[in-house]
Design goal:
Elements: H1 19-31, H2 36-53, H3 59-62, H4 66-70, H5 75-82, H6 86-93, H7 100-109, H8 120-130
Length: 147
């Protein structure tokens, strides 16, 4: 029987994590009757599967804002393609929180660096991460917003 330790198809992964996270990982392995090696493989595999499917955003993506995604666009062209008013796009660039309708329109046009389109869910996650500290108190563009 070949063990993972001597199997050339496997490599060693090692690092330090917060004790609370370590305890949670050990409990996960215990509850699922897994050794730590299999538990780590399961967790890392699941993470990358979700990342590849776009169900979670990478740390790099979480630092983006919707304004970052539209900053280099010609606003008139983006407005035409997304069917959004130029005023909405300008407000986003000025730091205002995009509405759900804004994100739906932008989702039709915006693409990631690899050419794949941004999904509306991804754009919502970017917006909500960027504005997690700012409540959306208004429902229309005519109301004042907290920047």
């Amino acid at each position: 029987m070949v063990h993972k330790k001597t199997d050339p198809k496997y490599g060693l992964l090692r690092g330090h994590i917060p004790k609370a996270l370590l305890k949670r990982f050990k409990n996960y392995c215990l509850e699922n009757e897994l050794d730590y090696s299999q538990g780590l493989e399961d967790v890392v595999t699941t993470f990358f599967h979700l990342l590849d499917k776009g169900e979670i955003l990478s740390a790099k993506t979480r630092t983006l804002t919707i304004a970052d995604l539209i900053r280099d666009w010609n606003l008139e062209e983006l407005a035409r393609l997304s069917e959004l008013p130029v005023e909405n796009l300008q407000a986003i660039l000025e730091g205002q929180r995009p509405s759900n309708d804004d994100l739906i329109g932008l989702g039709i046009v915006l693409c990631k660096d690899n050419g794949e389109p941004w999904t509306t869910d991804e754009l919502v996650e970017i917006r909500d991460y960027s504005f997690s500290y700012v409540p959306d108190l208004s429902k229309n563009r005519d109301s004042p917003r907290v920047p």
